[in-house]
Amino acid sequence: MLDSINWALIAPLLIVQFILAIVALVDLARIHATNGPKWVWVIVILLLNTIGPIIYFIFGRKTT
Amino acid sequence: MIHVEQLTKTFGAQTVVNDVNFTLEPHTATALIGPNGAGKTTTLSMLTGLLSPTSGKIIMPGVTDIRKEIGFLPQYPQFYPWLTALEFTEMAAVLSGLPKKQAKKEAQRVLEFVGLAEAMHKKTATFSGGMKQRLGMAQAIVHKPKLLLLDEPVSALDPVGRREIMELLKQLQEQTTILYSTHILNDAEEMTDQVLFLRGGQLVEQGNLREVHAKYAEPRYLIEFVEQAHAQKFASAWPTAEWKNHIVRLPITEGQPTMTQLLRTLANSPYTVVKVEQEAASLEEIFMKVVER
Amino acid sequence: MNQFTILLRKEFLEAWRSFKFLWMPLLFIILGITDPLMNYYLNDILSSVGNMPEGTVIQLPDLQPADILMASTGQFQLIGLAVFAVSVAGMMSRERQNGTVTLLYVRPLSYTALFLSKFIMALFLGCLSAVAGYGASMYYTALLYGSVNAIDFMKMLGTYCLWLLFVTAVCLMFSAMLKTGAAIAISVILFPVGLLLDTMIGQFWHVSPHKLGNYGVMLLTEASPYYGKTLALTCLLALIAIIIGIVFAKRKSITTAI
Q1: Is the distance from CB of B277 to CB of B221 less than 8 angstroms?
Q2: What is the DSSP letter of C52?
Q3: Chain C contact for A4, CB < 8 A?
């Protein structure tokens, strides 16, 4: 059944999710400090699709 | 000229600042000295307008909005990490009322003055403690305030950083009036016209640095011996003498003994002396005395 | 005016440099794509995961473009709005708590300029996200289900932005009043949770700001008779929240960390 899926439709979703994860990782690499260890955030961003990067952006970044 | 009259601040049942009165003359530096919890930061906060006094007044003749005329450097200044030093200082200048064009120019000028010429385009997140203190200084003076308030400006710095900030402050003293709190009294001694000793929210001593020195100076001789035993023996002959290791301290009361008398006594003794000098209480000792009284 | 411009610049620099303008719209795009795609492939998904007997045909309702946009709105209102509300609710309180705003408060600062600079930035971010999200949803819907009237779509989008204006004003007001934790808690209860409650028991009333999003989508098919009233009430409440927010921005300035 999966062959019938039109990848041209799915691909943009995957690409956007990929960009989101990349943006989060770039931000993580550049930021001076995070709430909690950085490596944990790498795992969160990579393993949790969409939610991971968002959680990082909301709770991971230190603001001072 | 700034008059502070009967300034009092209470938080609930606790009186943190109690009936404080003083005057700051133009182009003078005043040190606010006191142990932790004496009310230094609260006093400064009231002068900035961040806290309103429970009672009492802060008067700056001819000034309607006091916030326009003050610059403030908190003990631990916090900056927006994603702004550059220049962007932040420029914003500070505009918020203090400078027109936009002038704000940028002034921001550049003060950042060069505090030694951040190289770093002014870097984000403050990358700044060290010393650089943040300099930036804090820059934002406090960018609008040329009539009164510069600094809360423990050098306490968190290493000796080199401390020296540099003190040098900056000395230069600023010519342009503005400075009130700063500190507990590093060596620095205070160097750049102070007036001292205010604060203890438990009250001013326990205040005045011209020289007057305070004269009042509490307690002149004495310092005699250093080669042999510890000699020092001990010498000290035992003088009831008022204090002996510690190789050193004896002999208070001078009403000019007695004179230096000549002391030297003669030493010359006639079998002890070998390294040095004899007259010393007076440092601000630190005066502070301990006043505060623990 | 000078104060407002410089504070607005600061807010935009912050949002830009912390990638907010990138990740929040991306989230809404993902949310917007999900529903058209999911519904389109629902049959395939069900038959590949479900233990259906051979030859079962599931009769799915015949979905119209407006139904899909309604489903996407549901996604924005739950996940997207929660994320947005949490990020707005910290904007003022966090700066007081970490002391960054102290150096602004010691100046002759206009609290109106301070509040409005944050409000405008947050509103811009919200609208940008909504446009991106609805744009993505509409694109997929048009591809898979058919199109809707362009003017009606714009009206719907505009309505959703007005709802976000209300959300921004209220969240920022709580941020001006309370500590970050409390402001976030109230914002989440008031918006994502409030919307759930409104769907569950909201049939007893017709006019509440929480209904505005759905009324907006209904413009595509059959406009609600309560649309105008709801819109007016929402704008009025937003204005009140802004005024209260400015008052509290000033009143709470003494709580800033020194």
Answers
A1: yes
A2: P
A3: yes
Domain of residue C136: give its range: 2-255
Which chain C residue lies closest to B44 (C-alpha atoms)? C258
List B249's β-bridge partners, or say none. Answer: B222, B242
Length of chain A: 64
Count of C-beta atoms within a 10 Å radius of residue B277: 10
Q: Which residues of A touch B126 (CB under 8 A)?
A: 32
Q: What is the pLDDT of residues C95-146, one digit of tens each?
A: 999 999 999 999 999 999 999 999 999 999 999 999 999 999 999 999 888 8
What lies within 8 Å, CB to CB, of A7 at 6+ separation is: none
Distance CA C258, CA C256 (A): 6
Neighboring chain B residues of A61 at a CB cutoff of 8 Å: none
Residue of B nearest to A32 (CA): B125
DSSP A48: S
Determine the residue of chain B that is closest to C113 in CA distance.
Answer: B95
Contact A27/C at CB under 8 A: yes
| ipTM of predicted complex | 0.88
- Contact of C49 with A20, CB cutoff 8 Å: no
Question: Is B138 within 8 Å of B110 (Cβ atoms)?
Answer: yes
Distances (CA, A) of A53 to A42, B238, B288: 9, 78, 56
d(CA B289, CA B292): 5
**B78 contacts C108? CB cut-off 8 A:** no
Does residue C1 sit at the B interface (CB-CB below 8 Å)? no
Supply C203's token pair.
């049939």
- What predicted TM-score, i.e. pTM, was given to this entire model? 0.87
Per-domain residue ranges of chain A: 8-60
Pair of tokens at residue B59? 């008067």
3-state secondary structure of B73: strand
* Number of domains observed in the structure of chain C: 1
